[in-house]
Each structure stands twice: as C-alpha cells, then as structure tokens.
Prior knowledge:
By secondary structure, chain A is an alpha+beta fold. Chain A contains five helices and 16 strands. Chain A has helices spanning 59-65, 183-189, 195-203, 224-236, 244-258, and strands at 2-7, 11-12, 18-23, 29-33, 38-40, 44-51, 67-74, 90-98, 102-106, 113-116, 136-143, 151-153, 171-172, 177-180, 207-210, 215-219.
Amino acid sequence: MESVNMLAGETLKKLDTTTTKINDPSHILNYNITKESFEVSTTGKVSIVKKKQEEGKGKKDKRKLKEKVHIDVFPDQALSNYYFPKSGDLVLGRITNKFAFSYEVDIGAYSTATLDALEFDGATKKNKPNLEVNSLIYCRILSTDRFSRPTLSCISPIHKKSWTSGESYFGPIKGGFLLECSKKLISYLQSKKCYLLATLGQLFEFEIIVGFNGRVWVNSKKSVQNLVYLINCIKKGDEYIGEDSKVDQLVKSVKSSLTIS
Amino acid sequence: MFQELSVNETAFLKDTLSADIDLRLDGRNKFEFRDIEVKYGNSTNGLVVLSLGKTQVMAASSKRIVQPQKNKDSDGFYRFNIDFKHLQHFNDNMDVLQEARLELMRLLDKVFITSRAIDTTSLCISKGKYVWAITLEISLINYDGNLIDAVFLAALQCLKTLKLPQVRGKEDSVKILEDKPWKNINVHHMPIPITFYFIDNENNVILDPDLKEEKVTTSRNTIFINVFGDICGIHTQGVLSLSFPTYQECLSIAEKKAKAITLIMREKLKHSEDYMIDNLALDLGELAIDDGEGDAEDATKQKKEFVKTIKKSIKKDFDNEQLDDQLVVDALKRKKVPKLSEDSSKRGTYQVKGKRQFKAKEKNIEDEEDDEEEETVQMKSEFN
C-alpha cells in the first residue's frame, strides 16, 4: 500500500493507472475529477483503489493486482489560524498522557508531541521531575518534519539552572490563566514596541508568556480582579492593533464595563 | 470541544466562580444571559439562525402530506432531527456525540408535545386519509457552551415563522388553494429552557456558561417554564445533593428569566423583516467560527469564488416567489406519481392481473384529460 501526503488546494497528477473506486466519506474532492488527476479542497483522508492491466486471466491474479493508495490531506498554512510547528519555536503545551520514559503533550497542531523524561536541566535517571496530567509546560521544539510527530525539550543552552531550583527558564507552570489568540495578536505581543502591554504595565504588575502556537499565559499575584481586567484587554486588543490612540480608549472602556476600582 | 482543561484554568475558574468571589471573565452576573441575535430566511421553510453569544444554531423545516396511522386517524406527525457534523472533525469517537444527540431529540419530543405547545390534531386535512408531516432539522454551526438553551430557542423561532398552505381535502385527492395566503402553525405557548449548572456544591450556581466554564461544572438541571408560570418539563444530568429551599430559589429565578426572554423573542418576531438574510452564503460565512483569516489576499479571492458557486445554486430556489409557493406541487409533478387507486391495488394484499389492469389504465387516460384543468395531487404513504 502506498501513502501520500499533500496540502489542501493541491492537485495529484501522474496517476499511471486508472482508478476504480474512490472512498470519499467527508467530501474532500472537488468536482474536477479525471482519470489522471484530481483536486483536493479541504482536509481529511481519501483512499483509492487502482486497477492494473491484467496479464493473467485467473481469479487469483485479479486479487493480487488491486492496490490501494491512502492519501492524507493537511490544511494550508497562510489561510487559516491553525498552527504549524517549526523547529526552534517556543511553545505552551498541556500533558495528556504519561508513559515510563516520556510524556505526550498537546500543542494545538495536527498531532501530539513527545517529551522525554530526561529533557530537563540537570536531570538523571534517579533525579528527574514527576509531572502530572493536564499540567502546563513551557518548552521548545527540537525537530519536526512536514508531517511527522514533533519532539520537545525543556533544556535551555543559555540559562544553566537545574530544574530543582525554581528558576529554570523552561518547565512546568503554576497559577494564572490560559488564553487562545489569533496569529495577528501573537505577532503583535511579541514585537518590541507593544503599546498595549506598556500601558498596562504602568497600572499594575503582571507576568506573561506568549507561545507561538496561539496560547498566552497570564498571571498577576496580588489580586484576581487585575487578572480579569488583563484578560479582557488582551482578548479585545485584536481589533486595535496598530492604532495607539484607541488603546487608551480600550483600557478605560474595559474598566468601566467591569466596574473595578 | 472535547479537549480537557489544564490544572491552572480549573483552579482559577473554581476560585472566581465560587460564592465568595462573584467574578466572570465577561463581567456578567451569575444569573445573566448573553445577547441573543436572530436572523430570518424563507418563511416557507422557517429558516432561522440563532446566536446565543457565540453558539450558533440553524433551524429549518420540511413538510409533506401523508396518510395517518390506523389507530390515530386525525393525528399529524412532528419529527425532530439534529446534525452535529461540525463536531465530527474534532472527535473520532461518535458514541459520545450520539448520546447527546439522542438526548436532545427525545427532549424536544417530550417538551413540545406533552406540554401541548403544539397540536398534532391541528395538522389534519381529512380524517383517515391526509395529514401533514413536519420535520424540524436543527444543525450546529458553532459551539461555545449551553447547547440546550440555544437548540430550543431556535426551534421555537422556527415553529413561529413556519407557514403552511391552505388546503382542501376531497375523497381521493387534495387541492391546494393558491389564491389564499399561507397560514402559521398554532403554537399555544412558548416553553423556555433555563439550565442551572452546579460546581460540586449547591451554592455554586451559574446560568449560561462559556465553553471553559462549562467544563468545570459537574452537574446541571434544566427547567422549562412558560410565561404564565407553568412548568413544562424538568431534565437533569449528573449527581448532586440538593436541598429544597435552594431549589425553590432556582424556580423563582427561572420565572423571572422566562418572562424576560419571551419579551425578547416576541420583539424579534415583530421586527422579523429587519433581520432578513439577503445572501445566505455571505451571512453564514460571517456568523461562522472564529478562525481568523490571515492577511493573505488569496483568501479573499478564494472566498469570493466559493460564494459565487453557492449563489448560482441558491438563486434558482429562493429568488423566484412563484416557485416558493408551488414547491409541493411542482416537485411531485416532475416525478409523475400515479394515482392512488393504482397504488393501492399493487401494494395491497391482493394482486390484480389480467384484464382488470388494462381497464384501469384505460380509465386513467380518460381521467388525465379531465384533470389537467384542475391541479390535483396524489401522494404515497410512507409512514405506514
């Protein structure tokens, strides 16, 4: 059996043989279907049965000559708000499963990622952290192919502090709240001159982590009301990117709507 | 929808939603609903798109004339069908979805029919022969918490905007009166659902939660209440130890909310012409999910081309007013359905052979010439 991977909007060509059956349960294929090529519109899976020219005339020959081709379709990068992992990205993940020597982490991509249990600063077999399911982790992507499962690590080559001390750069996170944002907002929050965060920083203290996969972690230790105020400002900041004058209006309007001192 | 929450989020939400600190991310109270918006389409189908905040539900209907059951000569048929195809892409296990789907379908039957908001006897045309059969089709567009309320409110709006043609039943046929206008269905009262979501205690109560707030909750209880204070149904899910005085407070709150929501629904029905859907495809594209598009120009081009293909297919059905009124008649004329007398003879227990068949065919040829002036309709019976 053959397996092919392709992106949405592409056309498969050079089918050497004629096709007999097409299993398309989720209606992926467009109407432009010919024997030699066909288009794919959205994500999903398709299976095709080929039919070769028969040389032998017995029944056994017919069964051997049938071949299947499985096709997986993945979405295009620019059109949607979907995350495509790259090596070197800094990412916020959530643990879903726990195995003997590794963890399974949910990133928000087409598949989950793996994290070795020894990928922490200064970790050995007898001295390694014990993480729980459904806990947040800040980590870095080591390697990905176009369609394979990515691998993660919490080792930072720059900051050399072991995981036993609470000052390691990567690792598990406590407290705060998680948000999910669009690609626009994240690129704005990562810029050097972010007017939104500067104005909010003048009002009160807070911590923030921005992940490349669309997730933002936020915390303010002193009061819970400030946290709620912060979350609302960031959610609505999607509309006021690039216009500094409107950010001031935003900050005041959110204050009045929540009736917070 | 089926992803779990992290430990940080559950701790935050449980602290803020407890009785000590009453805070929500939107700035609402515990007992405050989100904004309800409705858009209307064709009145023949009762097409309605309802949005409770960001959850969006679409309701439409289809109708046909049918023979009734033998025991119940004058009862029509009401059926409810729900689609969760939007959620199919996010979950491989369909067992969980089918349980939720069956639960809602049975609830719709229970509440609307046993509380007598809808009459099946009003759908009768001629006793023992012809009867209306209406099916409501509800489909999910986006899920952001509180499914039950959105589905029922959309079904109510659909039933109130539905229209049936005026019909006269004869011995062997049914005649549709084209000169007279179409009429609405009899909806005697509007049962409105109000669901109470509990978090481990009877003191922590929420109305109308978001997606993340709903995952923190453990049990829920819905009360279907009328404007006049009649309880039309109660539905629970989960395990909880409740005391009666807290439930009395819930009932009193539900009465007030039901009155407020019925006022909103009635206002939307009065001004339904202001909220019409001109272009179905464009409105659905705006109302759909929050997947924000990138800044690429190719996206807009592809969207416009996609919209054009839909417009062509829609214009044939929805723009011509004449076709809308003659939907039932024309669809059947294309199929060239034979008369009832022939079908009963073929489908029945006895089978006629020989000369009688030829005689029946000769009769139909003569009858068809006379019936071309009148526009009659003969049907098959599928519900037997």
